[in-house]
Amino acid sequence: MKKTSNLAGKVFTHSAHDRTARRIVMEEKKDTLGMLDLVIRPGFCVKENQIIKVNQAAESLFITPGTDVRPLLLTGAEEYAAFTGGCLYLTLNLSSHSCGASVTRVDDIDVFLLEQESDNGELRSMALAARELREPLTNVMITADSLFPLCAAESSPRTAEQVARLNRGLFQILRIIGNMSDAERCAAVSHQETVDIPALFAEFFEKAETLVSHTGITLTYEGPDQPIYGLADREQLERAVLNILSNAIKFTPKGGTVAAKLTRSGRMLRLSVTDSGSGIAQNVRSSVFSRYLRQPALEDSRYGIGLGMVLIRTAAAHHGGAVLIDQPEGVGTRITMTMSIRQSKQATLRSNVLRVDYAGERDHGLIELSECLPTELYE
Q1: 379 pLDDT higher than 60
Q2: What pTM does this model have?
Q3: What is the set of domains in the chain, with CATH numbers?
């Protein structure tokens, strides 16, 4: 049944379906605004660049309704201007200090959820624990390195396979400890130097392609041919790239593809990695940047404590960029990490956190991709 109304000479026809759809949309908006009050983390809602709702935790940060959110964006301004869906991680400038925030869109409302000061305390605790674990693990790996060649030469193929599984497990533990140790550096960054950034990324993907070829998944990379020089933290970017690839590979079935592309837009570089996997579940998209979020992989259960995405978003923030995770039509998941092209060290965030070489002489790719590479690579 349809109802017709006349307003200012214009005729509008409303079906029962139309009215139901509008009511559902209004209820979703009401739920979004209402649920914000139940969130412990500081958060606020934005519509058309204006803050329209602030929860109690965010009020203590002097965030008020009616404020234009754009001047608060320390990184990710371009990404937010083009944001249409998915989950975006950027950095805000609040009361003279920076604060990370994840952004998700519900209908036409953007929900900002901010990091808390207590998060940094948790990260420091994990870093301290990692330092305590590093020495005994190093001793175990030194002993294992001396035993593995003997076992492989003198034992049966079955024993050699078991030794390889043990070695792979040690690499996975080393990755966890490395992630925990680097977690403390989420507050600041150092060790940036001027490099040819496209050449750096090409080097990362060239090394990774050799390893990924053993998984039955095709990895492709496309980047600028011309040099682009800027400040970069080589190790931090390499770990971010390898963590992005690890996520893509774990959720892509054998025979699938992972396509990476580096492009330039003005003073920004944009790395997009798209997989052909199952995509991110609808009910966890808003929490995709959470430190402890885990999704079941397609095959083997994964190891780790969910810090990979923290390292990715940190690398982006420290290089003046942001991270966007979305699901393009027809493909699985796309992770886009941006970074600004900077030459001045004054523009670089600083850190007094000591960097520890967690890998030693071991291949970073074998460590960071240890959750998804075949066991035989660790023989």
Answers
A1: yes
A2: 0.73
A3: 2-115 (3.30.450.20), 186-378 (3.30.565.10)
